[in-house]
Amino acid sequence: MPDSKPIALILLNMGGPDSLEAVEPFLYNLFSDRELIQLPAGALLQKPFAKLISHFRAKKVVENYRTIGGQSPLLEWTKKQAEGTAKKLGDRYKPYVVMRYWHPRVEPVLAEIKAAGIETAVVLSMYPHYTGATTGSSINDFKRAVTKVYPELECQFIAEWYDWPNYLEALANRINSGLDNFHDLMRSEVQILFSAHALPQKFIDRGDPYRKHVEETVQGVMQRVGCYDWSIAYQSRSGPVKWMEPGTEEVLHELAEAGHRAVLMVPISFVSDHIETLEEIDIQYHDLAVSLGLVNFCRAPSLNDGDDFLDALAELVRVKCTI
């Protein structure tokens, strides 16, 4: 008789403010995490500096969130991804979401799983490309909470899936959808610009595989898409540290200077819409591109809860987990 015990399917993500009032405390939680950002004054002063920085950054960030409706859509999309994937996996799988820097946080979710009598869990990072700053921090936070709240929980972790074939197929489908926005006579001229979230260069220098993972994802996707010129850039760079290069703004300038007319931007390290796609790409980079003469500029759709992407996640769980 097959095992019918329930399994928690737990998706890990960054989180985002669910109101304009939540922006500053969300930023404080983010800047307080030394696995993500190591402020120069050292661990002792990390939280006081995080308080100061989040206070001053909040005013601008609030306005960015105001332009996309006053809150992050990340929780909504991650819930849909968890529910859709669990449905494809079957009745044994019960969907949960844990956010690193905003609600729902890990400890209440683990308490809920414990109260439900669920003894095993598949924990899936929603960052396909591994970096200690995102997946590493989220998994470490999760493991600390398990030790405290529910040490009996049997967990299997999926920490990276940058080369998962079904994921690459789903991304290729989004690019083909984006290419359909260009006139047939212009389609062969389209420059595909993959834009990933930047990391401070020190993460790469210490051996973090993030850049390599992003590059391998792009190569796998382009094998499926076909013969288009493409490049990779890194967005969301801010603050007085050395960041991964090249920056997305720099590459847009280079494309314009080279006389290109059509650009399809593909958010490569994001698996759903949030502030970096809806505000940074769709507004900031769109306006920059138009001002530079790249008037034929659009973004490929995000993966969100597309059926092909949910199929990819479900198959990933089936293949990678032995629970």
TrEMBL record:
Compartments in which it is found: Cytoplasm
EC number(s) of the enzyme? 4.98.1.1
Q: Which GO terms describe its molecular function?
A: ferrochelatase activity; metal ion binding
Do you know which InterPro entries this protein is assigned to? Answer: Ferrochelatase (IPR001015), Ferrochelatase_C (IPR033644), Ferrochelatase_N (IPR033659)
User: Carries keyword Lyase?
Assistant: yes
Q: In which pathway does it act?
A: Porphyrin-containing compound metabolism; protoheme biosynthesis; protoheme from protoporphyrin-IX: step 1/1
The record's section on CDD domains has: Ferrochelatase_C, Ferrochelatase_N
Give GO BP annotations, semicolon-separated. heme biosynthetic process
Which reaction is catalysed here? heme b + 2 H(+) = protoporphyrin IX + Fe(2+); Fe-coproporphyrin III + 2 H(+) = coproporphyrin III + Fe(2+)
Q: Which domain of life is it from?
A: Bacteria
UniProt entry keywords in alphabetical sequence: Cytoplasm, Heme biosynthesis, Iron, Lyase, Metal-binding, Porphyrin biosynthesis
Q: Which Pfam families match?
A: Ferrochelatase
Return the similarity comment: Belongs to the ferrochelatase family.
Q: What does this protein do?
A: Catalyzes the ferrous insertion into protoporphyrin IX.
Q: What is this protein called?
A: Ferrochelatase
Please give the organism.
Answer: Desulfuromusa kysingii
